[in-house]
Amino acid sequence: MKKKRKVGFLTLILLMTFSLIISGCSSNSSSSDGKEKDGKTTVTFWHSMTDVTGEAVDEVIKAFEEKHPDIKINAVYTANQGEGQNEKLLTAVSGGNPPDVAYFDRFEIGSWAAQGSLEDLTELAEGSGVTKDMYYPFAWEEASYEGKLYGLPTSTDSRLVYFNVDHFEEVGLDPNNPPKTIAELEAAAEKLTIKEGSRFQRIGFIPWFGQGWLYGWGWAFGGEFFNPETNTATANDSKVVEALQWMTDYAQKYDVEDIAGFTDSQGTGAMDPFLTGQLSMKVSGPWEVSAIKKFKPDLNYGVFPMPTPTGENHTTWSGGWSVVIPKGAKNKDAAWEFLKFFSGEEGQKIFSGISRDFSVIDSVNEELGYKEDPILKEFVDILPVSHHRPVMTQGSLYWNELASAVENATRGNGTPEELLTKVTDKVNKELNK
């Protein structure tokens, strides 16, 4: 009799233990398919935004969850996301445990799509009525690879030439009629430059300073850097060569070593040479407006499009971010709903309204008042004709090789044609692997 009681007692203990284990498992906030006990689907969203942009994304999430009470966004801050810094995300994808959504540099979409690390969004977009004409053309194209969509664009920028109005008036240049042609730019730079011996007291312009990358000048000269039909780099396009030759001639005219001595001695922030009055013109983006307000609010300045040889067909180039669904995401449908909202008009109004980044939707930029600001209006107005960097698997390599070509050409280490042919061959060799 005692033996039977002992067995019964042990059985009761085992049953209670098993019951606790089962209840403990069921009390987890969500299951493997993202469903919570209250029926909500949890979408994990990785991003690297802090401060103002962090506040902006929080408000986007809040508004989304109000419209989609069945979906919860679990926002996870992940440092160092961006160009060449996505190791953690790549590891998560490789390990089969990626987030459902990631805030992603559009510049890297091509290489990630090619290696199969992003979900193809083409059918989801078609089924939802999300089309290219909703966005600036360059933004949609940069988020696509080989005719398929891999991300939805969210933010962007552009590049123009900033100029010091007081300097223009001082030397007799009309600030209401800034340079349109390359020849006019050169003439203005010469008038503005003050040089004593090998030392610049003030320099009118440095083509490669700030955001004066070869991409911008190559497109300004009418060149092309990539042929998407053949998937080949075309850095030695005759117009790109012409652009680099112009930069090289400029370096020789003012002595590249003297220019380097000037730029090497300059600082950033409040000590930026454009803000201190030591540089009369420079290529930069809309973020410069905030820097000027912070460090030199009384600066009398304006902006104009990057000049072209003919004074027509002005253009620029733009970068920016997107939202993507990493390959293997568990909650693809719910993630897509978040992507649509974030990159749609409502999400863009919230995000851009707080972060003050340009939207990829023209009507949003207009509604947020960017076109009412005389400076920002110029940056927004040129977006419809902006370029994006080539969508390719070797985007970072191409960028670095072009930068090296400019450095070598302006210092006399090879001709522009020779150097750009080497860039073309090197990048295409990697593309063909």
Number of H/I helices: 19
Find the count of extended strands (DSSP E, 2+ residues). Answer: 15
Q: Widest sheet: strand order?
A: 2-1-3-14-6-15
Shape: globular
How would a textbook summarize the main sheet?
Answer: 6 strands, mixed
Low-confidence stretches: 1-32
| Rg result | 27 Å
Overall mean pLDDT stands at 91
- Give the percentage of residues in beta strands: 5-15%
Derived from helix and strand composition plus strand pairing, the structural class reads alpha+beta
Span between termini: 80 Å
Percent helix: 40-55%
Q: Can you walk me through this structure?
A:
This protein has 19 helices and 15 strands. With 433 residues, it is of the alpha+beta class. The strands form 5 sheets. A 6-stranded mixed beta sheet has the order 2-1-3-14-6-15. Helix 2 runs antiparallel to helix 15 (345-355), helix 9 (214-220) crosses helix 10 (238-254) and helix 18 (395-410) packs antiparallel against helix 19. The radius of gyration is 27 Å and the shape is globular.
In short:
With 433 residues, the chain is α+β, with helices and mostly antiparallel strands.
Please write out the topology:
Layout (H helix, E strand, L loop, with lengths): L1 H25 L14 E7 L3 H17 L3 E7 L9 H8 L6 E5 L3 H6 L7 H7 L8 H6 L1 E2 L2 E2 L2 E5 L3 E5 H6 L11 H11 L1 E3 L2 E4 L11 H7 L5 E2 L4 E2 L4 H17 L1 H9 L8 H4 L4 E4 L2 H9 L5 E4 L15 E5 L7 H12 L1 H11 L2 E2 L2 H6 L6 H8 L13 H16 L5 H16 L2
Parallel strand pairs: 1-2, 1-3
Antiparallel strand pairs: 3-14, 4-5, 6-14, 6-15, 7-12, 7-13, 8-9, 10-11
